[in-house]
Design a protein that fits this description.
This protein is α/β, with parallel strands linked by helices and 198 residues long. It is built from 5 helices and 9 strands; from the N terminus they run ββββαβββαβαβαα.
Amino acid sequence: MAEIDTSGGGGKHKGGVRSKKLSTRVDLTPMVDLAFLLITFFMLTTTLSKPHAMQLNMPKKVDKKDEIEIGECQVLNILIDTLDHVWYYEGLQVAGLKQTEFAPDAKDGGIRKVVLDMIKKVPNTCPLNSKGAKREAIVLIKMLKGARYENMVDILNEMDITGCKTYAIQEPDPIEVEAVENGGTVKSFTKETVVQNQ
């Protein structure tokens, strides 16, 4: 509380009556107590934000009984190189290799749009499987030698965001590595080599 110290001198002197000088001193002790009370109150009544960890839905191990037949029309291959470029092609043979980016605001919509388009396209264009059910998209992720771990996390995030149910991380084939190094074209490999690698 504020206190006023009135112990200053006063009284008469030769020239007349001298006015009393008042000195004011503010005691801040109660203010400090009040501040600590408020801090304690808000600490006890506020709900602290809990840290949220990203849940990574890794594909389950497939039992031999549950093996699924794969049609060429349902496979999307994604290759990530050392320069953070994302390459992709559809099917089981390296043909029509295209380049895109991670950013969804890219000109072509980025890899997210590619995956979403594939998920929508496969059930409508692929023939039914042997059990008579519609097929679903399968994404094969392949990290080239020297690719950054951050990019693998980014592509797994894209799988989670797009809701892709079936995806796997695989080693790239030599023909895929050569295609990326040549800017999307395969030069030295023949059709027989493609068949042997599969």
